Amino acid sequence: MAANATRESVAKNALVIAREAAGRFGQHKELCKKFVRSFESGRETQPDFKFGRRKYKALLQRAANHHLETISVDLNDVEAFLSREIQDPDPMLLEVLQVPKVQLQQSIELMMADIEENALRYMKYFYEACDAELPERDANFNQQSSALARDAVHQWRERQLAQQSNGLSPDAAIPVRLKNNFDVRFKPRDGARILKMRELSAGKVGSLVKLDCLVARVSQVKPKVEVVTYHCEVCGAEIFQSVESERYTPPKECPSQRCRDNKQAGKLRHNIRTCKFVKYQEMRVQNVVTCSCRWRPSVHQRGAFRCPHAHRVAWGCDHCNWSVHTLPASLVPCT
Fold it and tell me: Which residue has the higher pLDDT, 109 or 321?
């Protein structure tokens, strides 16, 4: 009985903690937007000619001009930003959120830990903030970029959606992953501890962790779909499906308003050309020093690969220092 009571109390505490964390999501989302919009780097960096010392606005300008594929959000910058915000919260932010000053300060104090413990959710928040603050292209646009073909598809899609929508903005119906050609990644704090394999427990699921390991095996670099597009053969609408897992189930009928009004079951057809694909590679890693831990977890790399080897992020026997998100998944064996 005592063991059951202990388990119930632990479950209740976990539920209370989860509810409190969910209550802070709206406040943290607004803080992410303000960070991307207004964070200024120190005097040790060269100011940008257009945005000055606003570091992430300058990075977004490079991404808009197709000179940059990955926006690296340095958690040291986030920590410095939050330390300033907690001392003097923004009055405009208090007015928008309609919360007391003390409550906002408590939320700011917990935001750093929430980012590191729930990294994928906050990566999505920062991606949405970057999409909202993305500037227009300027004269420094990269005319040799391979993304120009996707721009032509995007312009065609906007024209199609403008005809189908009733006064709504075309961008409102397009997933942000399909509109943009950049990714957002977290760079851990300098003081983050490097973990060993045996220290990856259930409590680390969803967290941002650092691993020092050897690459045992690697798979080939393959395309992985992020957004699937369909074309309805009845009403001509374009349907989008975001894919966040290893597998997905295509919709059987067209969900557009026109097919629903006509009470028709529109047949959907895949449109591979307009789908969004990213690079994907799977690796098996192990401890640097041989020990009793024989577990070899898989590391899944996706997005823009930054390494000296063409089209690969790592090779077998490489010694790597990874910053990864730990997630439970049904894994396909590495070939």
Answer: 109
